[in-house]
Amino acid sequence: MYRILVTNDDGIYAAGLRAAARSVEGLGEVVVVAPSGQRSGVGRSVSVFEPLRAASVTMNGFRAYAVSGTPTDSVIIGIFSIMKGQLPDLAVSGINIGENISTDTVTTSGTIGAAIEAASYGVPSIAASIQVVDQGDKFDSHVTKYEFEAAVGLVRRIAARVLERGLPEGVDILNVNLPVNASEDTEIVITRLARKIFRTSVQERSDPRGRPYYWIDGDLICRERQGTDVRAVYQDAKISITPLTIDSTARVDFREISDLIG
């Protein structure tokens, strides 16, 4: 029987996590291990300076655990403690409330971070996210206005095939992003990462004692070139699937780097 690890960064009680578990129900033994609370934007951070706790919770019939750490911590605890070091055959991270597109979000997303951690052990991984209307919804684990059915059906189809065939050589993660109001009829395109999605800015303010503090902010860049994930989701309202590799080595002739060394 296949073993499937399900996790997220929105927390153990997020509706998207329940949807992710449903998407692979019946495909194998499903184990859900996720942060005990909202941990968006933490990337692949690991808790190395404090102990972690894992509590068994009830989640719609699934074997589930809440971890007092990051999404990456959850994957580590899931594999090496709860699953006793037996690698799962598939990891599913999500279904995240908030699109994870472009290098901006892929390198900061806890959803992607969890998928990367699983992939680092050779586990084929799927990260799934849905676009939000209000960017503030990305940080509200209790938001209920989003529908997951299209994502559930798509993730299930992909998961079944990945379990059967594996991922193509050189691909570690499939990053799936659905536009708002996607349906089973929404067109799917294979994309590359856009370079940016945020036009970064910093707001400087003063606290009641006159000391400065800073709030990182930024407007969305919603227009991008053909073939990118940002273009697919924001401009064309299509489902974007981006194959990712955890090998960040630049594809360059190494002699060009040697020339820089002298």
Number of domains: 1
Which stretches are low in confidence, meaning pLDDT under 50 for 5 or more residues running?
Answer: none
- SSE string: EHEEEHEHHEHEEEEHEH
Strand order of the largest sheet: 3-4-2-1-5-6-7-11-8
Q: Which secondary-structure class do the elements indicate?
A: alpha/beta
Strand tally, please? 11
Oligomeric nature of the chains? single chain
Largest sheet: 9 strands, mixed
CATH level-1 class:
Alpha Beta
First-residue to last-residue Cα separation: 55 Å
Structural commentary:
- There is one protein chain.
- The protein has about 260 residues and is an alpha/beta fold.
- It has a single domain, classed as Stationary-phase Survival Protein Sure Homolog, Chain: A (3-Layer(aba) Sandwich), CATH 3.40.1210.
- The protein has 7 helices and 11 strands.
- A 9-stranded mixed beta sheet has the order 3-4-2-1-5-6-7-11-8, sandwiched between helices. Strands 9-10 form a two-stranded antiparallel sheet.
- Strand 9 (about 200-205) and strand 10 form a beta hairpin.
- The termini are far apart.
Task: Please tag this protein with its features.
single chain; 262 residues; alpha/beta; Stationary-phase Survival Protein Sure Homolog, Chain: A; two-stranded antiparallel ribbon; globular
Describe how the helices and strands are arranged.
Blueprint: E1 3-7, H1 15-23, E2 29-35, E3 54-59, E4 62-67, H2 71-82, E5 90-97, H3 102-106, H4 110-119, E6 125-130, H5 149-165, E7 173-178, E8 188-190, E9 198-206, E10 212-220, H6 229-235, E11 239-244, H7 254-261
Parallel strand pairs: 1-2, 1-5, 2-4, 5-6, 6-7, 8-11
Antiparallel strand pairs: 3-4, 7-11, 9-10
Helix pairs in contact: 1-5, 2-4
